[in-house]
Amino acid sequence: MAEYVLWKPYYSVADPSLDMEHKIIIGLINELHAAVISKKEEPDLKSISDRLVRYTNEHFQHEEQVMKDCDYPKIFEHKLEHEHLRKKTLDFHNNLNLVTGRDMLRFLNDWWCEHIQESDRAYAPYVQMAIREGG
Questions:
Q1: Angle, nearest 10°, between helix axes 75-94 and 101-114?
Q2: How far is it, in rounded angstroms, from Cα 90 to Cα 92?
Q3: Does 5 fall in a domain?
Q4: Residue range 91-116: mean pLDDT, rounded
């Protein structure tokens, strides 16, 4: 089965560990897609949602620390975006009986792909500069 979301090199944020975390999140979106397509979304949705909530929090903590370490000037705005996604993901998780896998899939795909391509890539030059400066 074809992947629903493919990792593209231009998604890179110049930090291999954050890139790997983004790939894991994309993998969870693809796992959700596979469950929806195979009509197994009901039993799998809770498991995928559990992992997504947990991993999103871990990833955001790590990413926010990297942004702090490289003095990213828009960290406050970025953290607000993270908070929005945390709340929305938790809302989906807490209301699985009211949403479909397709609803969740659509939201996650739109939000994550846009967030990585725009907001996350905006801090990439600061990460690169910190790497060059040995920080």
A1: 170
A2: 5
A3: no
A4: 86
pTM flag (> 0.85): yes
C-alpha span between 43 and 58 (Å, rounded): 24
In DSSP notation, the chain reads: ---SS---GGG--S-HHHHHHHHHHHHHHHHHHHHHHTT-HHHHHHHHHHHHHHHHHHHHHHHHHHHHHTT-TTHHHHHHHHHHHHHHHHHHHHTTTTS-HHHHHHHHHHHHHHIIIIIIHHHHHHHHHHHHTT-
Sign of the torsion angle spanned by Cα atoms 72, 75, 56, 12: negative
Question: Looking at the domain assignment, is residue 9 inside a domain?
Answer: no
Confidence of residue 135 (pLDDT cuts 50, 70, 90): low
75: its two tokens: 């960290």
Show the domain range for 27. Answer: 14-132
Residue 1 located in a structural domain: no
Asked if residue 52 lies in contact with residue 113, where contact means CB atoms within 8 angstroms, the answer is: no
User: What CATH number is associated with residue 55?
Assistant: 1.20.120.50
Number of domains in the chain: 1
